[in-house]
Amino acid sequence: MWKILTVFCVVAFATAAGDDLSEGELGTYMKQTNDIFDQILDSVSRSEELDPFQLPEMVSSFERKILFRFHGESRIYNGTVTGLSTMHRAGDSHLRMDESKLEVLAGVGVGALDVNCKAHVKFMGRGPTVNIAVHIAYARILLEAFQPQDGEMTLKQFKLQELDGFKLKMTGLGPLTYLFTYFVRVFTKLFKNKVKNIVESKLAKMVANKLKGIKLGV
């Protein structure tokens, strides 16, 4: 996927601006862009609110059919995410230009990430408190920004592309151990969505704020 993206960006850039920029100029602009994103990502990753990142309490409802349909609920609390400060640029940025704007695309990596929390699981009105540990080897993110003519850089998207090496461990189910596989599926979906939300909301907002006032000299 990332190889395809790289080829697309290079071809698109060559089509839009290949006749106007020399190889040396292209290299200069790419280095300038790389340096700017490195500074932005480093600045964001140093934020004290990121590592550890405190998860808000979450309540999730679910249902399970065992002859009859039963309803349950989990309350997740004391949650933290560590590893967000490892955010970095992954590979060279790529530029696309036309008469009205400059677009920049870059890969961003984060990881490893670890999520630890407790969850009180109620099924048919009762249940245990469990410990949950999630490990994510690497998160791949696409950063896309644009700069209108005579304008400043603006974040277009900061989108989670992939979570590599996602593993979830859960202990303490006790009498609900027979539902272990089911709860793993439930919590896997929940935490993948939560990490996606942190990336595309919290981190994206921080990166967008750092981009304000920046103008590439192209």
From TrEMBL:
InterPro entries: Mite_allergen_7_sf, Mite_allergen_group-7. Residues 1-16 form the signal peptide. Transmembrane segments: none annotated. It holds the Pfam family Grp7_allergen. It comes from the Eukaryota. Keywords: Signal. This is Putative secreted protein.
